[in-house]
Amino acid sequence: MSGSAKTDVSQPPVMNCFVLVQNSDLGNANLAGQLVPQLGQLTNLQYLELYSNNVTGIIPEELGNLTNLVSLDLYLNALTGHIPTTLGKLQQLRFLRLNNNSLSGQIPMSLTTLTSLQVLDLSNNKLVGGIPVNGSFSLFTPISFANNVLNNPPPAPPPPIPPIAPTPSERLFAFTTVLGSPHL
């Protein structure tokens, strides 16, 4: 039909509106169900707060597409499966709380690249393996990883010992050693 306006049918108009969403705070809202992969299309989302509900199933890999995300709070749910390695792409992320679920597998090394991460809580899951100690993970205490089946991290190196100032007699000895003994 000539003269008619073209419409984008690749996404329903309702979904186009949701792409603009920046904040989804549905914590403690008595929600039940699974996280859908389409959440990864909400690319403007900065806060995804679904804590303290009855969310089940896995964390979709597509959440790694939410590159503007600052806070991901999925704690106190019934999530299972692995922590997606794609969450390592969320370079704006400052808060990652996945505690009190039934997540399993190893902690993805990709999470250590999140240089903005300030709060991490993976406690009370079924995670196994080692606790990364590099990158931003060097900032977190054991409580962030408590009540899992994780290996203890290697001990942190001791702080450097400050040099001790030489006593006056040691300085004099060093001075005379360098210059040689005085001539009489």
Describe the structure.
- By secondary structure, the protein is mainly β.
- The protein is built from two helices and eleven strands, in the order H-E-E-E-E-E-E-E-E-E-E-E-H.
- The strands form two sheets. Strands 2-4-6-8-10-11 form a six-stranded parallel sheet, with no helix packed on it. It has a five-stranded parallel sheet with strand order 1-3-5-7-9, with no helix packed on it.
- It is elongated and about 75 Å long.
- The model is unreliable at 1-17 (pLDDT under 50).
Share of helix among residues? under 10%
Sketch the topology as an H/E string, one letter per element.
HEEEEEEEEEEEH
Q: Give the overall shape, derived from the CA principal axes.
A: elongated
Roughly how many Å apart are the termini?
116 Å
What is the spatial order of strands in the main beta sheet?
2-4-6-8-10-11
**Poorly predicted tracts of residues:** 1-17
Overall mean pLDDT: 82
The value of Rg in angstroms is 27 Å
- What is the strand tally? 11
Helical/strand content category: mainly beta
What amount of the residues lies in strands?
Answer: 15-25%
Largest sheet: 6 strands, parallel
Question: Helix tally?
Answer: 2
